[in-house]
Amino acid sequence: MGAAVPIPNGRFLIVGGASLVGSASAELLLREGAREVIILDSFYQGSRDAIAHLAGDSRLKVAEGDVLRLPQLLAAARGIDGVLHLAAVMSLTMDRDPWLGLSVNIQGTHNVIEACCAAGVAKIVLASSTAAYGYGPGVAGELVETTPFHSAGAPPAAILYGASKIVAEQLCRDAYAKRGLDYVALRYATVYGERQHYRAANALFIIETHDRVHRGERPQVIGDGSETKHFVHVSDVARANAAALASEATDAVLNISGPAPVTTLQIVRLVTELAGKDLEPEHVAPDPRKVRLTSGGAWRLDHAAAERIIGWRPEVDMREGISRLIAWREASLSAAAP
Amino acid sequence: MGAAVPIPNGRFLIVGGASLVGSASAELLLREGAREVIILDSFYQGSRDAIAHLAGDSRLKVAEGDVLRLPQLLAAARGIDGVLHLAAVMSLTMDRDPWLGLSVNIQGTHNVIEACCAAGVAKIVLASSTAAYGYGPGVAGELVETTPFHSAGAPPAAILYGASKIVAEQLCRDAYAKRGLDYVALRYATVYGERQHYRAANALFIIETHDRVHRGERPQVIGDGSETKHFVHVSDVARANAAALASEATDAVLNISGPAPVTTLQIVRLVTELAGKDLEPEHVAPDPRKVRLTSGGAWRLDHAAAERIIGWRPEVDMREGISRLIAWREASLSAAAP
Predict the structure, then answer these.
(1) CB burial of residue B283 (10 Å; 0-12, 13-18, 19+)
(2) pLDDT digits over A47-106, tens only?
(3) Is A146 in CB contact (< 8 Å) with chain B?
(4) What is the CATH number of the domain that holds B125?
(5) What's the ipTM?
(6) Which of A248, B150, B186, B202 lies at a CB distance of 3.0 to 4.6 Å from B138, suitable for a disulfide?
(7) Which pTM was predicted?
(8) Which of B91, B94, B97, B106 would best serve as a mutation to test chain A binding (most A beta carbons within 10 A)?
């Protein structure tokens, strides 16, 4: 058994915290009684808007800092009980700049681990990804934590992203074995929800559909829309992060996915319906300039191990999650309107 | 079709060339009429001994330089037609220092690619590895280039090494797609042969056995010795490197393996016999402190694609290859004796 870091009275550092997952996780940790939550972010991808709703809580500190600069991490980790390491570059950014992506995802994780070891942090929770199963025709069926990494037929950026997450997990595992740093790596499914950004290739199915139907345009579905996707609502991810910190689990890699997979056509129909629009989707061909993350056939990201090991299971289904996302977006859009 | 770089009259840079594969490749390129061969090596792992037999050929230049220092690569790549990128850290070193290993294998490859693009090099041949299929119980059967990466049950260093090779391949693929740099990545099986070193976990089965039987001690076999290994003789690897340069193949990832796999017991018996010793192997338990690269059941690294795409097939079987290795070692040991 490893270190349990209870949330009440705990001191937490969220690296890459001015983000979709970071803001929801910070909110949950504060709500559950954390003594201190430090958000460290370079604001290269993160945004102050994502954490604006938390302002005013004196237990929250926001620091500007880059995972590629070890001294900033060393300073931020001092006196911290548990670290959530979320800072990463995803496939779309990896495609534009592979070297930046590899640096942030690999050297960044290395630096965070060094800072945790130096500061005597009890536990790190790493944001890994289902990209650790890869993409392309090989990915099908029930994906469990021992499923191998498929890459045949996938774009370079997707493979680089997936491999960078495999490396990040193993850096944690190596630090656990050699230096006793407790860790849990959570392989998030596609995260969506309030404060959604445009950087995740799969979450774009939700947000781009909402953009179109909000303007009164017909939503678009690529191909026949039968492609499987598996999402997880950001509030469930925040709960998983807290559960991983608070449990005694260590040296564990766990899938974190929503109640069930969906097809792209189902997502598009659900977003259209929940936005209150009566618009028939139009089927379009894929844009060859865009990185797409496709898999072989139907697949499902099994989360039974997370339930067994950290006592977590998802609570928010796609209907509720998309409703919440749309409510947030429409409120933001109204607030921004003149 | 990509650029063919004929060996006669060609100018070549071998990065990480003061090595087992580098010395054999340089020797072959010179024998086949290359105009110039530059060996760049940091001499961190490489050694001047490995290339001493090539001294005196005025077409060969040896430069000290590190793949982590881009300016040295930029200088070395000027005027070069084809680059062999061999500089890498393997599992045993990766275990001692994961960060060094990831830096050399990933940032090093990035730097070599940048130097190739800047200097207008026509083609790069990347030394990849069968580690791209991973290790552990999942690895069994016929391994073809689309076989996924298995990691469940493997030590961190082995997974980090394999993932670093997957990343290196994809960096080449990305540079090909976006900048037109022709490349062939060769997934070498375990390389063995003259000028063998002690850094490769699997090649140790040959060299450590020879060390023992040479001293008159019984050779050791881990467990029942039924574990599959697939080797390739260094002269065949040198031929594959030359074939990849000279062919029009590009954007290709190819297995490079010997005629057939063997078991660890077969290797140990063959080394003992060819060293002229009559010693029965003793079966021992694995040393838990050592990184071991084990797989599931019987497996074979298929090299049909290499034959189809670059017209290469292995010529040296284990009996001949081990004889050559032992002849070289015994000659070196006699020369070193007072």
Answers:
(1) exposed
(2) 999 999 999 999 999 999 999 999 999 999 999 999 999 999 998 899 999 999 999 999
(3) yes
(4) 3.40.50.720
(5) 0.95
(6) B150
(7) 0.96
(8) B106
